[in-house]
From TrEMBL:
SUPFAM superfamilies: Chaperone J-domain, TerB-like. GO terms for cellular component: plasma membrane. It is a single-pass type III membrane protein. It is found in: Cell inner membrane. The transmembrane domain is a dimerization domain. It comes from Pseudoalteromonas ruthenica. This is Co-chaperone protein DjlA. PANTHER family: CO-CHAPERONE PROTEIN DJLA. Its main location: membrane. Homodimer. Gene3D superfamilies: DnaJ domain, TerB-like. Residues 29-279 are cytoplasmic.
Amino acid sequence: MWGKLLGACFGFMFGKFLGALLGLFVGHMFDRSLKQDFDRAGGFRGFFNHEDVSQRQALFFSSCFAVMGHIAKSNGRVNEMHIRAATQFMDEMGLSGEDKREAQHAFRAGKEADFSMNATLREFREHFAGRFDMLQLFLEIQIQMAFSDGHLAEQEKALLEQVAKGLGVSKTHFNFILKRYQAEFAFRQQQQRFSQQQQQHHQGRTSSTSDAGMNRRQALDILGLEEGADARTVKKAYRKLMAQHHPDKLVSQGLPEHMMKLAQKKSQDIQAAYEYLKA
């Protein structure tokens, strides 16, 4: 409103009625842009949302590890590989003391027979309504956990599909995310093997090394693209995925700061894929 009012006044001063009309239009565009920024910041709630962000971070943290625990017991018994992966995940996040105990407690709760994953997902979705990037990242983390032993069992895939449905993610988009993660996993495994071989080579135990570079198929899958994608399509996919996984933005929406490294790793993989395809 103020943009339109001031625009009309200044326009009238310099151009009479024609100037007032032009000023009114410019003011309207300013008001609209300002409103969009205001809404993205959470509207009037943005002035009082510090506690709300902290609550969402706590919910993301506990729900994430609880669902991890549930997936670890997908075939009726605890998968030790998933437990090791969850522990490694906690270590990578730098969890210690009370934070680590809370993560372990949530993980154990998810393994209990009376754990309701649907109720957990329903509460999570209600608190992160309108924040699709957060819902997607939550699903990506669960896919990473299920894939920790290098393959996806049918029971695990069925549970992940249930998670996706509970979050409001379509089956088509779930398959899109799964395919992207499989490419990320293959690339990281390739990098790890290369690093190990390099280390052995420097220690004089081997004279051969493999290529740690990304291949075209991996790069396309990481960006969610098909063969034949042109430069404009590649750039558009890259920008969209980088925006979805920007660590600072995700933290402001409720991602626990401990989990920033996860978003950073995904951003690095997306960047590597883009650099390969644009070369």
